Amino acid sequence: MALLDFAQTLYDSEFGTGLRESVLVFPIIEGLHLIGLAFSVGLIFFVDFRLLGWFLPKVPVHSILQPLRPWLFGGFALTLVTGVVLFIATAVKVIVLPVFFYKLGFIALAGVNAAWFEYRWGRRIGDWSEHTILPSGVRRAGWASLALWSLAVVTGRLIPYLSYQ
């Protein structure tokens, strides 16, 4: 119940009410959220496709990953900030939806997968990144990333549809 009370406090706050009732601000925040997703998840898919050998297989992974990292992190930061703001505006509606917690779980698991990839493989990227067929652990991380981020996006897109039932 404390979580629902917290959500109600956020929802009833001046900020939450103002955002929710704004004709322009809410759609702008939502648009920025989608732009952040395009940069973060969209670019992650390119990296994952390379890890699986489906995209630019002759180009070393580090040649793709290194220039994209600032854009990936910038997109993720934008998505995170706008996601928190959108949550404040809709907290009472989304906190009761199981799909919202699935989304958060998929994001957390995708983060664990990314951290594992960085810890296990990212430190030694020069040792394997130029191979056409990458180590199986790298490919598994790519598959996991594709699956988890896809599930996060799908569950996120379900939220507005399920919250107005």
UniProtKB/TrEMBL annotation:
Family matches, as InterPro entries: DUF6644 (IPR046586)
Keyword Transport: no
Record bears the keyword Cell membrane: no
Domain DUF6644: 30-160
Domain of life assignment: Bacteria
A Pfam family matched in the record: DUF6644
Keywords: Membrane, Transmembrane, Transmembrane helix
Record field: transmembrane: 24-47, 68-89, 95-119
Name this protein carries in UniProt: DUF6644 domain-containing protein
Organism expressing this protein natively: Methylomonas koyamae
